[in-house]
Write a structure and sequence with these properties.
Mean pLDDT: 92
Structural class: alpha/beta
Number of strands: 16
Number of domains: 3
Helix content: 40-55%
Distance between the termini: 61 Å
Largest sheet: 6 strands, parallel
Radius of gyration: 24 Å
Strand content: 5-15%
Low-confidence stretches: none
Length: about 525
């Protein structure tokens, strides 16, 4: 029997994960302190591995549910007692990228530890090469060189590391030139290589058997040593030494919006600096934050930060405040087409969040097909599929609905927004906040069984439903598009739509063309207070 990962199931999982998190983080600290012969703070380990612990717990939880589900329907086979060989990932980025294979691997490990013994789990003792996971495009590298020269001779107090996703906006380059006396950008993409060997003996010694009914924390701790990334264990001491050698100057303040999830060199450096008094400033970098009933990224990022910035919302946390994000300069161009921005996920679940997952993905595909089939317009529709390799199910569903559908991911997404008469979205993530925040005509449809929102967001979302921005089916969204086809602007610029939009944007997509002035005043005040 296939598990349907709807919002109710996600909530149950997030509750269990929340209860297990502290125990697993504490075990990470104990194991690594003993291995390295050190005693770092709990926050130190939370910064360098809190993201990994989160995803690791999601994998363990999903595996326990699949294991229990298999036991119920009798699908366990003789293969459950066979051996499995684990080669630990080099770093957290590789761990996250392995989402297609890790779920089955975790399930196999649990089966071995339940049916056989720890001896059934073999840890590969192969040689491993750990590198700096940061990468930059050619364009961004050119900007980085320019910004490096711009800061020569200055004494900046604030270091910006990966302050946004995607290509560097020209507005950011001009801002950094004007801020060069007090700020510097360095994405820490220096070359770093560590050659090491997996300590299979240590890892195997710390495995433990599990049994049906064991709680999530105990199960996760039983398999933890097999999955800790090499960069945090065997390669950690040398990795840390090389990072500190590459960047010996400590900054009083460090800001990022991208680095806590995959940039291990950043996390090692910042964890060490924070132990010495550096303040970590971190910014929400996408959708779902503040809207989801529970959002693990938001919880982790705000937990380890001294200052946490959002796109408008604040729930009373003393370290959380609103700050508009860096946004590319946006100029509406000739409206040549309509756009449909699509979401997708792997069929193999690897994390829990309130969006379409295995069990609800098919509903999203069906809704999208209904939308494409029902929409009637002489304006061309360009369909932008979600980046990544997730199979062809969504594309095929769209083609069955309309064999002449046009798929186009060739443009920068902001350029596509600016050339669109109206932008449709088949999910509620980052893209719909970007179009709403930039006042681009927007219509979204989503599956109510896949999402769960916080109580303070619901009235604002209901207002968007009332004015035709939000829909709970692709059919309804298409019918609204057909109804406003003759004059999109008359609908979009109407007072009721704009009031609903502004009220929502103020809390969840509060972008500003004056972000440079707002940031300069804010960070100069922060520097003044800290001196």
């Amino acid at each position: 029997m296939t598990i349907v990962w709807n919002a109710q199931r996600v909530s149950e999982g997030l509750d269990e994960i929340g209860s297990a998190r502290a125990s697993v983080l504490a075990n990470v600290k104990q194991l690594l302190d003993e291995y390295h012969g050190v005693s770092y703070s709990a926050r130190y380990y939370d910064i360098i591995l809190g993201d990994w612990v989160e995803r690791f717990l999601h994998l363990v939880y999903v595996a326990t549910q699949q294991y229990a589900n298999g036991a119920k329907d009798g699908s366990h086979s003789d293969e459950t007692t066979s051996e499995i060989v684990i080669l630990p990932t080099r770093d957290t980025a590789e761990f996250f990228a392995a989402h297609q294979t890790l779920p089955n691997q975790m399930l196999a490990v649990l089966r071995c530890l339940s049916f056989s013994s720890v001896d059934a789990v073999k840890i590969s003792d192969g040689d491993i090469e750990v590198k700096n996971s940061a990468t930059m495009s050619r364009r961004n590298k050119i900007y980085a060189v320019l910004l490096k020269f711009a800061s020569i001779g200055s004494n900046p107090k604030v270091l910006f590391v990966k302050p946004f996703s995607g290509s560097t906006p020209s507005s950011w380059v001009s801002a950094m030139f004007s801020w060069r006396k007090w700020a510097k950008q360095d994405d820490l993409d220096f070359s770093l290589v560590v050659q090491t060997k997996v300590d299979s003996q240590w890892r195997h010694q710390h495995l433990a058997n599990v049994s049906v009914g064991t709680n999530l924390a105990e199960t996760a701790n039983a398999v933890l040593s097999a999955f800790i990334p090499v960069c945090a264990l065997e390669g950690f001491a040398e990795f840390k030494a090389k990072v500190k050698s590459a960047r010996p100057k400590r900054f009083a303040h460090v800001y990022s919006a991208q680095s806590l999830w995959t940039h291990f060199a950043f996390k090692v450096l910042i964890a060490d600096w924070c132990e010495q008094g550096t303040k970590l400033h971190y910014h929400q970098h996408g959708g779902w934050y503040g809207l989801d009933e529970t959002h693990v990224g938001e919880i982790y990022e705000s937990r380890v930060s001294d200052f946490y910035y959002t796109w408008g919302w604040n729930r009373g946390n003393t370290n959380t405040r609103a700050l508009p994000p860096v946004t590319p300069s946006f100029q509406v161009q000739e409206q040549l087409f309509d756009s449909l921005i699509c979401f997708d996920q792997p069929q193999q679940i690897y994390r829990l969040q309130y969006f379409p997952l295995p069990g609800t993905l098919q509903t999203m595909y069906d809704q999208t097909a209904d939308f494409v089939r029902t929409r009637e317009s002489v304006t061309e529709l360009r369909i932008r599929l979600f980046p990544g390799e997730y199979g062809v199910q969504q594309k095929n569903a769209i083609l069955r609905a309309n064999s002449s559908a046009i798929f186009d991911n060739s443009q920068n997404i902001f350029s596509q927004y600016s050339s669109s008469r109206i932008v449709f979205h088949n999910y509620l993530g980052t893209s719909w906040l970007e179009t709403l925040g930039n006042n681009i005509p927007t219509i979204c449809f989503y599956d109510v069984d896949a999402y769960r929102f916080r109580s303070d967001a619901k009235p604002l979302l209901e207002d968007l439903v009332k004015v035709g921005v939000l829909h709970i089916s692709g059919l309804s969204a298409a019918e609204k598009a057909n109804a406003v086809e003759g004059d999109v602007d008359s609908w979009w610029l109407s007072e009721e739509v704009q009031i609903a939009r502004r009220n929502f944007v103020l809390q969840f997509a509060n972008f500003s063309t004056d972000w440079k002035q707002i940031w300069q005043k804010y960070f100069l005040d922060v520097i003044k207070v800290s001196e």
